[in-house]
Specification:
The complex is a heterodimer.
Chain A: E1 4-7, E2 10-14, E3 19-25, E4 29-37, E5 43-48, E6 52-56, E7 59-64, E8 69-74, E9 83-91, E10 98-100, E11 104-109
Parallel strand pairs in A: 2-11
Antiparallel strand pairs in A: 1-3, 3-8, 4-5, 4-9, 6-7, 7-8, 9-10, 9-11
Chain B: E1 5-7, E2 10-13, E3 19-24, E4 31-38, E5 42-50, E6 53-57, E7 64-68, E8 74-78, E9 87-94, E10 105-106, E11 110-114
Parallel strand pairs in B: 2-11
Antiparallel strand pairs in B: 1-3, 3-8, 4-5, 4-9, 5-6, 7-8, 9-10, 9-11
The chains are: A mainly beta, B mainly beta.
Chain lengths: 110, 115
């Protein structure tokens, strides 16, 4: 099946810093979503972005489908941005399910 | 609020017991997905239903079963529970029969602790 690798596994930053999270996937995909899991366990949709670039406030994402990677940018980090960020993909060929990466744990210190 | 409702939010039960987790999808969504999140396995796909029929199956144990009812709500039944079944169980929904082309929204999860 498709492999999804996220980097870095852990990231610790000061409030106000910018960060870039990366998601590499091993095959062509129909669906790519970024999620934020907050400290209470909730999985919050950030972007549906199988290709192209999207922005939502301080967050933006870019997926380069031909090169099989996606980037999530967080600018001017706030403590509420802390949590785990997951990338999930649906492979074009194969079982139709979202496959999740292992996540990037982001800690924003005040 | 994603619009996906899961109950109960927390559940503590003993080994060997059986529990049922319930999910109501977003209005208009026909697909329901179940995922398990444990510390050592990450987020694992269990099973998907589309409009009442099983559509895709993942790493679901034989002790686990699910169904989707005519009103589109779904239940995940976990039986002969073991300590290792302790996890956060998510339900998700989407409009279409497959993840492609659809944003999939997750509920808040059901925390299951087996003691």
């Amino acid at each position: 099946g498709i492999q999804v690798e996220q980097s870095p596994p852990d990231l610790i930053l000061q409030e106000g810093a910018n960060s870039t999270l990366r998601c590499n996937f091993s095959d062509s995909v129909n669906n790519l979503q970024w999620f934020h899991q907050n400290p209470w366990g909730q999985l919050i949709n950030l972007f549906y972005i199988p290709s192209g670039t999207k922005q939502n406030g301080r967050l933006s994402a870019t997926t380069v489908a031909t090169e099989r990677y996606s980037l999530l940018y967080i600018s001017s980090s706030q403590t509420t941005d802390s949590g785990v960020y997951f990338c999930a993909v649906d492979q074009i060929q194969g079982a139709q399910k979202l496959v999740f990466g292992q996540g990037t744990r982001l800690t924003i210190n005040p | 609020d994603s619009g996906v409702t899961q109950t109960p939010k927390h559940l503590i039960t003993a080994t060997g017991q059986r529990v049922t987790l319930r999910c109501s999808p977003r209005s208009g969504d026909l697909s329901v997905y179940w995922y398990q999140q444990s510390l050592d396995q990450g987020l694992q796909f269990l099973i998907q239903y589309y409009n009442g029929e099983e559509r895709a199956k993942g790493n679901i144990l034989e002790r686990f079963s699910a169904q989707q009812f005519p009103d589109l709500h779904s239940e995940l039944n976990l039986s002969s529970l073991e300590l290792g079944d302790s996890a956060l169980y998510f339900c998700a929904s989407s409009p279409g029969r497959a993840p492609s082309g659809n944003t999939i929204y997750f509920g808040e999860g059901s925390w299951l602790t087996v003691v």
